[in-house]
What we know:
Blueprint: H1 2-7, E1 13-18, E2 23-31, H2 35-49, E3 57-68, E4 74-84, H3 85-97, E5 101-107, H4 108-116, E6 133-139, E7 144-150, E8 153-160, H5 164-175, H6 179-188, H7 203-234, E9 240-246, H8 255-263, E10 267-269, H9 285-291, H10 296-302
Helix pairs in contact: 4-10, 5-6, 5-7, 7-8
Amino acid sequence: xxxxxxxxxxxxxxxxxxxNQKVVVRTLEMPVVDPKELQAAVEFQAQDAIPIPLDQAxxxxxxxxxxxxxxxVQKQRVLVVAAQRDMVEQFxxxxxxAGLTVENVDLQAFxxxxxxxxxxxxxxxxxxxxxxxxxxxxxxxGTTNIVVVAGGEPxxxxxxxxxxxxxxxxxxxxxGVERADAxxxxxxxxxSGGAVAAGDYEPDTVEEVRxxxxxxxxxxxxxxxRSIDYYHSTSQDxxxxxxxxxxxxxxxxxxxxxxxxxxxxxxxxxNPLQYIAENRSKMSQAELEVSAPRLAIAVxxxxxxxx
Length: 307
């Protein structure tokens, strides 16, 4: 309630983006059935695929598209999301206590798709197998969201409990500085890469800061590599061709260069403002563009699938 008042929001509705270990995402392959029977069919098959008792879960699904299997049988891919009911109810209860209404509870991964993915329609029906994939990576302060998109469809999602705060804490520990100073070093000196440090830093300081920051970022890069390798080993789609980076961690100096080298593939900054026609915020356009990577999930939550 205090945050709502401080930020000066006018409305009373909000959307919640969730990303934690209490959410499970699975893609099911199942026979094409009458739409009226689909929910029951999904719930029946989800019992074996979802490690949460369905009576304790909030379940939702979307049909990704249809395909013909090796036996010439028409089937459909259904994306199923299950979240522990008590966790969802906590978000709803917090909103009600503040006098607000939760309009939508969504996965942060899906919000990233809406905000950053190439504008093939989200959940485009019938995207071809073998489509070239893009990894959307949002490095937040404490968690990193990874979602692989192929043909406009989210094919793989994962949440890693690491983020930009790991870099900040490493700098605080090794440099003996306060958090604000460590965060400034992350933004101005950052990681090994092409751009020189911003601000007035001695060469020895730059080298030491980047060595420490690289060590913390390497743990994130390791998890990204594991996710990419897992996707390649289990998917029939084409390989991941590039990474779009967003989140607070994307603003770490040289982040794109560093992760491009660590992952051996192109890494560029995602632009969540690409589908926003008009700036109605209290920020100038220049300020908004600088902060854009931080806004990817928020923008995606505000967009409908059709927008």
